[in-house]
Design brief:
The chain is of the alpha+beta class. The chain contains eleven helices and 17 strands. 28% of the residues lie in helices and 24% in strands. α10 packs antiparallel against α11. It is globular.
Length: 439
């Protein structure tokens, strides 16, 4: 079974070798075959939430002798959250996932246990005022969820832009947090954020040692989010100072028009740019327009609606472990629940892609192969005409691919001299446009 794809509609952020969005809205035909893979039973070890290794203290009420034998290898760490005036206690195990509890400063004592049957840790408080953070969301708190994989330079710019938000309290945002889920980065992302935590007071860091793909990373972010509204952006998106306020104003207006119904989300504008020094200087172009219903590059949505659409593991289908389509697949389920889209062009994000070089060709090919396999998964789960057109499994798209590539005779190897000449002459965008149809 073959998948033919010529337009990118599903940006990703943390696939290995990914150059996410580099082909956005450009013809890019990919031929891929689907083979069903088994689901891994490995549970990635998640290390301590938080952004600093300084000032961490062991929980004094949780002595080694008082803990069950199963938890002897666990680490118990605590840090003070200045913004929320609370303490966050984290537990990390070599074969289990981190459990976090937000604790009032006057109620800090707690106990831990471990459930062998589920592989999950639990954190129980001796005070009724202490609750697990995943249970109770804070009203008027917004959570920005950003998965990332080896994108430290542009991630830094993205986080600094989020720290520079101008928000009018009247729009319904009393506070916001930025939940960064590191999906197994090896470029020093974790260390940088820990050492520079003072620069990013809104950031909460969650780490997965093993790269699990964008869907799993976003699921972890949603589950950890404390806000009643979740904003998804990619780790290479630099936003404007009024980004969150624009989303909040539009979302609040949309809900009021629907009598308080929160089955609605706002979709912001994404401007593609290769200007690393000043991403926000890029003008909006026709090629930046997107026909996608739901894409995680720039949306704000009720966390309640996300969880109602998904499973206990989160809203994203974890079978989409490779690059592409996991967000549009979620969009189909949201649409089936009656969730509506409201455009919010005032919430602008600038999506950075490095200038095209010939070194990127192998990773682009791998990326499109992954997108092809996920495209088949998407159609198998939602066998509708709309999805068939999205993933371009039609005779028309196959005919276009055959015409543009002469049945595959024109490929990246044949075009290599022309691509090199265009790149050397300072026309990398033209080179990418020429390459796109044959990928």
């Amino acid at each position: 079974m073959a998948v033919l794809q010529s337009w990118r509609q599903s940006p990703s952020c943390c696939s290995p070798g990914s150059t996410a969005g580099v082909l956005n809205n450009k013809p890019a035909v990919a031929l891929a075959h689907f083979s069903k893979s088994s689901t891994s039973s490995h549970r990635p070890r998640v290390c301590v939430e938080g952004t600093s290794s300084r000032g961490r203290k062991q929980v004094p009420t949780l002595s080694t002798s008082s803990r069950p034998a199963e938890t002897q290898g666990w680490r118990h760490l605590r840090r003070h959250d200045v913004n929320r005036r609370t303490w966050v206690t984290s537990i990390s195990a070599g074969n289990g996932e981190e459990v976090e509890t937000t604790i009032d400063p006057t109620e800090r004592e707690s106990t831990a246990s471990y459930d062998d049957s589920t592989g999950q840790g639990t954190h129980q408080s001796v005070s009724t005022d202490v609750h697990q953070e995943h249970v109770e969301q804070q009203r008027n708190l917004w959570s920005v969820v950003i998965p990332t994989y080896n994108r430290l330079p542009i991630l830094t710019k993205a986080l600094l832009a989020l720290e520079n938000q101008t928000i009018d309290a009247a729009v319904g945002i009393s506070a916001y947090e930025v939940v960064v889920v590191d999906d197994g980065s090896t470029d020093g992302t974790i260390e940088f954020l820990q050492e520079n935590d003072a620069k990013f007071p809104h950031v909460r860091l969650i780490r997965q040692d093993v790269n699990g793909g964008p869907g799993k990373a976003r699921n972890r972010g949603v589950l950890a989010a404390r806000g009643e509204v979740v904003v998804f952006i990619d780790s290479d998106l630099v936003v404007t100072p009024t980004f969150l306020q624009s989303h909040a104003e539009q979302l609040d207006q949309a809900r009021q028009q629907r009598g308080g119904d929160d089955r609605v989300f706002t979709y912001g504008r994404v401007v593609n740019t290769d200007n690393f020094e000043d991403p926000t200087a890029e003008p909006f172009k026709v090629t930046d327009m997107s026909a996608a219903f739901f894409a995680t590059g720039n949306v704000a949505i009720s966390r309640q609606q996300l969880m109602a659409t998904g499973t206990a593991d989160g809203p994203f289908d974890t079978e989409f472990s490779e690059y592409g389509w996991e967000d549009l697949e979620l969009g189909e389920r949201l649409k089936n629940r009656g969730v509506e889209i409201v455009q919010c062009p005032e919430a602008v994000g600038y999506h950075y892609h490095p200038q095209f070089t010939l070194d990127q060709v192998p990773s682009l090919i791998r990326q499109e192969q992954q997108r092809g396999r996920n495209g088949v998964r998407f159609f198998q789960k939602h066998p509708s005409l709309g999805v068939r057109l999205m993933v371009q499994m039609t005779p028309l798209h196959f005919g276009l691919w055959w015409l543009l590539t002469l049945g595959g005779l024109i490929n990246e190897r044949v075009l290599a001299p022309v691509l090199k000449a265009l790149v050397d002459s300072g026309r990398p965008r033209a080179a990418l446009g020429l390459l796109s149809p044959i990928l």
